[in-house]
Design brief:
Layout: H1 2-24, E1 32-38, E2 41-43, E3 48-55, E4 64-70, E5 74-77, E6 80-83, E7 91-102, E8 114-124, E9 130-136, E10 139-140, E11 145-153, E12 160-166, E13 170-172, E14 177-181, E15 188-198, E16 203-212, E17 224-230, H2 243-258, E18 263-270, H3 272-285, H4 296-310, E19 319-327, E20 330-336, H5 342-345, E21 350-351, H6 362-375
Length: 376
């Protein structure tokens, strides 16, 4: 009887122990930890925040929970930490978080009371700056200046430095504008390079150009032919301008009036027979100074000048007379604008000595004709 009672008591005790174990003797689950970095990608200098979240913490809050952090530039405060990225080079980085649970001063001493986690973030490479530039004006004369304007931008607003260079002349300035001087540069196209550099030594360039043009030069004036006055038709007076010639001379006078700064050169010509006679007379005059030398080429030019001066009112100082060896019985009239070089434009002429060749006025010629007719 006693043994039965003992066995029954043991069974009751065993069942009680099993019931107690099922209610309060279960082992607590281990603590867990997760961590997240935000934002996951930054530029150096931007702040990264990391948040740790612990799981399976003592629900009765009898235990203390302690967090710790490690990593480059990491500063933790409880379940959160921040990362100073200012000195970090571009690349990937990891922040480690650890959590411990337990009685104060004894956190993490028992199994299941410690957990760790990592969070990753990336420091991005700064984007290089961009630049554009222009010149105003883009066409200048030698010695003139132009203003160069540059527009530079950093996508991440990094500090920027500007510089300029030119293939000719000189350029100065380090800000958004620079001054270009063409002094000493040859004419033609000059290349301008604008350079921007950020504080990370990243650079960008842009190009523009300036054209240095030749200064305007007025065309060189040249002698113009105004026509030929023919002396071949009057056999009796081969040095006299006939009425047909006078019509041409009236047109020449009008040209001189319309060009007050121009001059006139009259070039007399004689045919081969007349030139031979003049040469023969000149040879004889060397032996006998009283002999007269008739130079019809010179007389024709002088007579034409006299008509323009006396009949048309042209200033005598505007008209020069000369001869040429051309085989003809004529006077060539040339208009010489200011700045023109007659000798270069019409070579081979010889100036007439107007003190030795006197004009034969129209009235004097008419009187001479009457005397000849009267003798007959």
């Amino acid at each position: 009887m006693y043994s039965r009672i003992l066995k029954s008591g043991c069974m009751v005790l065993a069942l009680a122990c099993l019931a107690f174990a099922s209610i309060g003797c279960q082992k607590a689950p281990p603590i867990t930890l997760s961590a997240v970095a935000s934002p996951p990608a930054v530029y150096a200098g931007d702040q990264v925040s990391v948040t740790a979240t612990a799981g399976s913490v003592d629900p009765n809050k009898k235990n203390n929970v302690v967090y710790s952090w490690s990593g480059t530039g990491v500063t933790g405060n409880g379940a959160s930490a921040s990362v100073a990225t200012g000195t970090l080079a571009p690349g990937s980085y990891t922040v480690k978080a650890e959590v411990k649970e337990g009685k104060k001063g004894k956190e993490g001493l028992k199994p299941g009371q410690t957990a760790d986690a990592t969070a990753s973030f990336t420091v991005k490479q700064f984007e290089p700056p961009t630049i554009s530039c222009s010149a105003s004006p883009s066409n200048i004369k030698p010695g003139d200046t132009s203003t160069i304007t540059a527009t530079a931008l950093s996508p991440q607003n990094r500090p920027l430095t500007l510089s300029y260079s030119a293939t000719g002349g000189s350029i100065s300035g380090t800000g958004a504008t620079a001054s270009y001087s063409s002094a000493g540069a040859p004419t033609g196209v000059v290349g301008i390079t604008c350079t921007v550099t950020d504080d990370k030594s990243q650079t960008a360039t842009a190009n523009t150009s300036i054209t240095i043009t030749e200064p305007y030069k007025a065309p060189t004036p040249h002698t113009q032919s105004l026509g030929t006055i023919d002396f071949s038709k009057d056999k009796l007076h081969p040095a006299r301008a006939n009425n047909e010639a006078k019509a041409a001379l009236d047109g020449i006078a009008l040209q001189l009036q319309q060009h007050p700064d121009a001059k006139l050169v009259l070039v007399g010509e004689a045919n081969a027979k007349e030139q031979a006679k003049t040469a023969k007379e000149a040879k004889a005059a060397k032996k006998n100074k009283h002999l007269k030398v008739v130079d019809l080429a010179a007389e024709r030019a002088v007579n034409v000048k006299d008509y323009l001066v006396t009949e048309k009112g042209i200033d005598a100082s505007r008209i020069s007379v000369a001869t040429s060896p051309t085989d003809a019985q004529a006077v060539e009239a040339y208009l010489v604008p200011a700045g023109a070089d007659f000798a270069a434009d019409v070579p081979g002429t010889t100036a007439v000595d107007e003190t030795a060749v006197k004009p034969q006025p129209i009235k004097a010629i008419k009187k001479a004709i009457k005397k000849v007719v009267g003798k007959k």
